[in-house]
Amino acid sequence: MDKAELSPTDLEKIAKAIGEAETATSGEIFVVVARRADDYRLVPVLWAAVAALVLVWPLFLFTPLGMATILLVQAAIFALWCVALTPDAIRLRVVPGPLAAANAERAAREQFLSHGVHTTKARTGVLIYAALVEHRVEIVADDGIAEKVDQTEWDAIADTVIAAARSDNLSGGLLSAVGKAGEVLARHFPPQAGDRNELPNRVVEL
Question: What angle do CA 136, 137, 140 make, to 5 degrees?
Answer without folding.
Answer: 135
